């Protein structure tokens, strides 16, 4: 062994253990996780829906006032969900932080608004990308049964999740009275069938024809809770 190789060998033996260059990564893991929990959450989709609804209302008023074809007006501008900056810093921070975000529920208390200009309910994937929806672990849907626009949104969500999903829980709260019309019954039945793919829980007024009361033949992957007065 030459003198040069001996020096290199000695230098390697006495080298200090690798330490992260980032002061943040030198913090204890528990503290980093607390910071991620404080810094990360799903956006309030109601604010996004409200902003777009305001645009739709303004465009509708312009159409009524100007009496010009709807096609001459710009379509509503939709701000899609973007990746939080903290997830773009480096690979280690991403791997630690994304687990914290995925443990938080994505809550939808109303569907996207209806655009008279486009003649349809806006697609939920215009606000939240398919890849993001497919990586969400926990979702809470608070469905007002008097809002028909929920039908398209639920069908679109299930189409996305049937392709791929990482759902650990899907909680559906039914509000606004019993499910009376056939389209809603069909959607609720499809949600119940989706319980074979992911854990689904229901709460609220359910149609008698598809109500599962937790007997021995019920799937253990989902639970129905009927809150109607006895």
Describe the model.
The chain is an alpha/beta fold and 230 residues long. It contains seven helices and seven strands. The protein has helices spanning 3-13, 29-39, 45-66, 91-102, 130-135, 149-163, 182-194, and strands at 105-108, 114-115, 120-121, 138-144, 169-175, 200-204, 223-226. It has a five-stranded parallel β-sheet with strand order 1-4-5-6-7, covered by helices on one side. Strands 2-3 form a two-stranded antiparallel ribbon. Strand 5, helix 7 and strand 6 form a beta-alpha-beta unit. Helix 6 runs parallel beside helix 7 (182-194). The longest helix is centred in the first third of the chain and has 22 residues, at 45-66. The relative contact order is 0.09.
């Amino acid at each position: 062994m030459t003198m040069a190789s001996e020096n290199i060998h000695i230098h390697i033996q006495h080298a200090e253990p690798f330490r992260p260059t980032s002061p943040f990564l030198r913090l204890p893991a528990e503290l980093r996780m607390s910071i991620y929990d404080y810094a990360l959450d799903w956006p309030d989709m109601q604010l996004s829906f409200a902003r777009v609804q305001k645009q739709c209302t303004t465009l509708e008023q312009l159409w009524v006032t100007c009496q010009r074809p709807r096609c001459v007006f710009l379509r509503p501008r939709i701000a899609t969900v973007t990746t939080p900056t903290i997830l773009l810093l480096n690979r280690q921070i991403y791997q630690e932080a994304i687990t914290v975000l995925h443990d938080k529920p994505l809550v939808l208390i109303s569907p996207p608004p209806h655009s008279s200009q486009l003649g349809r309910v806006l697609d939920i994937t215009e606000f939240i990308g398919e890849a993001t929806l497919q990586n969400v672990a926990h979702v809470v849907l608070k469905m007002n049964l008097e809002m028909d626009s929920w039908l398209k949104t639920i069908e679109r969500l299930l189409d996305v999740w049937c392709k791929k999903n990482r759902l650990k829980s899907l909680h559906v709260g039914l509000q606004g009275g019993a499910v009376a019309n056939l389209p809603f019954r069909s959607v609720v039945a499809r949600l119940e069938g989706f319980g074979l793919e992911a854990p689904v829980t229901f709460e609220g007024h359910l149609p008698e024809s598809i109500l599962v009361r937790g007997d021995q033949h019920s799937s253990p992957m989902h639970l129905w809770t009927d809150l109607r007065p006895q």
